[in-house]
What we know:
Number of strands: 17
Number of domains: 1
Oligomer: single chain
Radius of gyration: 22 Å
Shape: globular
Structural class: alpha/beta
Amino acid sequence: xxxxxxxxxxxxxxxxxxxxxxxxxxxxxxxxxxxxxxxxxxxxxxxxxxxxxxxxxxxxxxxxxxxxxxxxxxxxxxxxxxxxxxxxxxxxxxxxxxxxxxxxxxxxxxxxxxxxxxxxxxxxxxxxxxxxxxxxxxxxxxxxxxxxxxxxxxxxxxxxxxxxxxxxxxxxxxxxxxxxxxxxxxxxxxxxxxxxxxxxxxxxxxxxxxxxxxxxxxxxxxxxxxxxxxxxxxxxxxxxxxxxxxxxxxxxxxxxxxxxxxxxxxxxxxxxxxxxxxxxxxxxxxxxxxxxxxxxxxxxxxxxxxxxxxxxxxxxxxxxxxxxxxxxxxxxxxxxxxxxxxxxxxxxxxxxxxxxxxxxxxxxxxxxxxxxxxxxxxxxxxxxxxxxxxxxxxxxxxxxxxxxxxxxxxxxxxxxxxxxxxxxxxxxxxxxxxxxxxxxxxxxxxxxxxxxxxxxxxxxxxx
Length: 463
């Protein structure tokens, strides 16, 4: 990406070192019409009118709510600048409740997931009550983004959080090497991560997502080890979401060139460090799954939100563990063929009535086996039964069967001012929810809006 600013001069930023792979992600993009609730008028244009304005193309699907900017760590790479401003942001319980009520009222489809973040959200003693409130409003997926420090040291508090109905623990996890943690976190926090996971295992919790911040020359040699750690703790770890370092703060172009890691870099490193068990072609862009939600929308006859993010925002795959081996879903399912097939069936359903729906469901169940290589499919996985259960209306319980047999591996490459792209912002599905009722795309919030908004919402710590 090359751009010129009258004030700051010329900038050149690498997006990918593999044009073929970059174009592959573009080819696999899927577009769908989404209903987006507009809450602000277009004035200055994208990305300044966030709220959302009429330029936005994807609804709020996954929402962040910052509970505090206090933290029990002082990480050198914190994009939230927690504690650095000497000003406190900590909405009251009632203010958070209003944000959740606003989130639950979004039409036609409220966001299905909320992530409580910060700062460090576990510094709030009322976190369990906040989670219970979100649950009572029908928000189906609730997770907390945490460094795990309090969960490691305070099992009683962890038990309260578990009992409140939380679904997922989004655990900061930068590798297994002390040097990586010292660079990113200021000291070796790996023992705390392990202790937090042990405590979660003790309480029988099984939905941890490891979240490594990744940078060249710091921990990019540990991607395979992190995946194998997830495999070895598969009873608790449900996913790994690699996050390339985003330069939202001050950084020189020399530093960016030295530390920048792209999606292409990540998938190539994963392929090399897992000896090909997981290959770069096993990963697909996030909007690739849109045909599934479009098919369900037609099948049920109700409006559905579609994950129409930009294809360069992130990639993901599902991996199954069998006898210590990692088997990506793409090794035994023709996912591209099946999704094209779903699109064809979807067109038939849209043109017919109830009888046509029944015919198409029967046809899918009959044809499904042609997209699956049963010889390569894990022995304890019956994908045909799961598909049949989903198509016959048993959504959640059958998807849970799939979820508990697989390990999600993905990456979201959040933007910064150096690689900022309006096309990506307009399709963002991950938004910050604010006390004034607005929803701001993740990358524009951290790159443009955060500082000014926090000035309005914070008070000096002394005060």
